[in-house]
Every structure is written in structure tokens, then in C-alpha cells.
């Protein structure tokens, strides 16, 4: 009995993806870069590409390996299809989040919460 690939669909309504400092990432150079582009009602595969200041509207966004960079992008009424390693990470995030909203914390290079200025 063979196994078959499993995919999961997440529906994203409106999200803002903040800029990421260059020092926070160790991603490879990408052959394809999209800047200031609007994707509307299309299938967009993220792996192997970087996106800067892009808009995704009513798209099917596909992620398998996670080898992508999104900087200052916006997502509106898109569906996210996770496959492979991305699907596994999605399952883990679902386990941790359960029925609660998922919160993402940013850390600086020292492991401290970021930004430092928001501490009382």
C-alpha cells in the first residue's frame, strides 16, 4: 500500500508581511525576483523566488520547501496550499495554535525579543 501526497488548504484573509532585516535571514540568492507586482486571481508558487513589496489578491499561493523571501508584501483573500516540508510545519503550527490565533514573535540576533523599544 503506497502513500499519497497530502496537502492542506489555509485561507488567509488580509495580512501584512513586514520587512525583514537582511541580518535576520540566511536565505540563498534567488534567480527570480518580483518587485512592486500585483498578483490577482492566479496560482503563485513561492519556492525559489523572492517578492518585494508585492500584493497577492484572490490567489492560490503554493509553498513546498519554504525557500522563498517575502518582504513588505500584502495578502488579501488568498488560499495557501502547503506541500512537503511546508505542510509538515503547517501541521506543527496547527498543533501549537489549536483554536487560538497564531502569534509570531520576532527575535534579534542575540535571542532577545524584537523590537527592544517596546519593553516597559
Structural notes for this entry:
This protein is mainly beta and 120 residues long. It is 12% helix and 40% strand. The chain has one domain (1-18, 30-98). The chain has one helix spanning 84-97; strands spanning 8-17, 32-35, 38-40, 43-45, 49-52, 55-57, 60-63, 69-71, 73-82, 106-107, 113-114. The longest helix has 14 residues, at 84-97. It starts with 7 loop residues before the first strand and ends in a 6-residue tail after the last strand.
Ranges where pLDDT stays below 50 over 5 or more residues in a row are 1-16, 20-27
SS strand fraction: 35-45%
- The beta-strand count equals 11
Helix proportion range: 10-25%
Structural domain tally: 1
Q: Globular, elongated, flat, extended or rod-shaped: what is the shape? A: globular
Q: Which secondary-structure class do the elements indicate?
A: mainly beta
Question: What's the gist of this structure?
Answer:
By secondary structure, the chain is mainly beta. It contains 1 helix and 11 strands; from the N terminus they run E-E-E-E-E-E-E-E-E-H-E-E. The relative contact order is 0.20.
Amino acid at each position: 500500500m503506497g502513500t499519497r501526497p497530502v496537502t492542506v488548504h489555509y485561507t488567509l484573509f488580509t495580512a501584512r508581511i513586514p520587512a525583514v532585516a537582511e541580518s535576520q535571514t540566511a536565505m540563498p540568492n534567488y534567480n527570480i525576483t518580483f518587485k512592486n507586482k500585483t498578483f490577482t486571481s492566479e496560482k503563485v508558487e513561492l519556492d525559489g523566488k523572492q517578492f518585494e513589496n508585492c500584493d497577492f489578491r484572490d490567489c492560490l499561493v503554493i509553498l513546498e520547501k519554504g525557500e522563498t523571501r517575502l518582504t513588505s508584501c500584502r495578502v488579501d483573500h488568498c488560499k495557501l496550499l502547503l506541500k512537503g516540508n511546508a505542510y509538515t510545519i503547517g501541521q506543527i503550527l496547527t498543533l501549537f495554535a489549536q483554536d487560538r490565533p497564531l502569534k509570531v514573535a520576532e527575535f534579534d540576533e542575540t535571542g532577545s525579543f524584537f523590537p527592544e523599544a517596546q519593553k516597559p
